[in-house]
Task: inverse folding
């Protein structure tokens, strides 16, 4: 019965809430682990649970020393699930309502310097299809700040290169327009003309970036490519696709872009998410100090 309710809940999240596949996967995993806990406690039905059950479960998460972010997400999944059950008349109360979880610590984004980005972008060499694809991907990611899921999901009809724009589908299936610079546009066009056709096995495939088998490049495939070029560039930092996204935002802010514009380009629903970049921009801090400290 619990699994049936979970399936209905996930369907509800897709149809009514439009949550991303990554969020759905995380919620499903969190709730299945909760169900395992209930079984270990001899609780066979959701109707038998109450607030103390949830307090005990959250206590096990703290005992396992899971990150505050994971604990907060799990609590969010539980609250949403019980609210759904209440709305579906499966329960009269919501035992998760009084629960409060830890606030996730906001870690500073890891970024590359402009020199490190420049070195990274110079690593793909040659006119072979893979080289043309790789330089196009790196240039596009740094030029637009796309999430890696948005990058590998790009389709040909999302490209408006003459207008120097890319249409992308972000979290919650929200579409946004992102500017793309001249250099990235040129590298992307070169790949589309010379690199993509040799990789393409099925002309009906809409995706921009393809692997050696002619299918859509996977998230793991791009991570592997990025790590390889980071090592070749001699960059000691651990590099992920999000590192380039963070670098994109930080370098824009250092160059004088306003937070609202950066928020729109990144697809952040709340500007407070974007404001964290002000904490890693030394020039922003120096300017604030010069303007407001009485003895600067």
Result:
């Amino acid at each position: 019965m619990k699994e049936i309710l979970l399936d209905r809940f996930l369907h509800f999240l897709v149809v009514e809430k439009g949550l991303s596949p990554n969020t759905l996967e995380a919620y499903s995993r969190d709730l299945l682990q909760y169900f395992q806990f209930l079984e270990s406690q001899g609780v066979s039905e959701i109707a038998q649970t109450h607030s103390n059950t949830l307090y005990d479960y959250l206590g096990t998460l703290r005992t396992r020393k899971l990150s505050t972010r994971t604990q907060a997400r799990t609590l969010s999944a539980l609250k949403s699930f019980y609210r759904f059950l209440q709305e579906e008349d499966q329960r009269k109360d919501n035992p998760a309502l009084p629960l409060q979880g830890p606030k996730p610590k906001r870690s500073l984004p890891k970024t590359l310097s402009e020199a490190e980005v420049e070195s990274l972008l110079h690593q793909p060499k040659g006119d072979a299809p893979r080289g043309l694809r790789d330089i196009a991907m790196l240039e596009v990611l740094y030029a637009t700040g796309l999430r890696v899921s948005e990058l590998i999901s790009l389709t040909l009809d999302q490209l408006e290169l003459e207008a120097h724009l890319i249409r992308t589908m972000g979290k919650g299936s929200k579409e946004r327009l992102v500017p793309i610079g001249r250099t990235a546009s040129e590298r992307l066009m070169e790949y589309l003309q010379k690199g993509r056709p040799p990789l393409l096995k099925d002309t009906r495939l809409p995706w921009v970036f393809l692997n050696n088998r002619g299918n859509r490049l996977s998230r793991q495939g791009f991570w592997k490519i990025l790590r390889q070029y980071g090592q070749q560039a001699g960059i000691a930092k651990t590099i992920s696709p999000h590192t380039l996204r963070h670098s994109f935002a930080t370098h824009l802010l250092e160059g004088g872009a306003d937070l609202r514009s950066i928020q729109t380009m990144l697809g952040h629903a709340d500007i407070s998410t974007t404001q964290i970049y002000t904490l890693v921009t030394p020039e922003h801090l120096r300017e604030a100090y010069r303007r407001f400290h009485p003895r600067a």
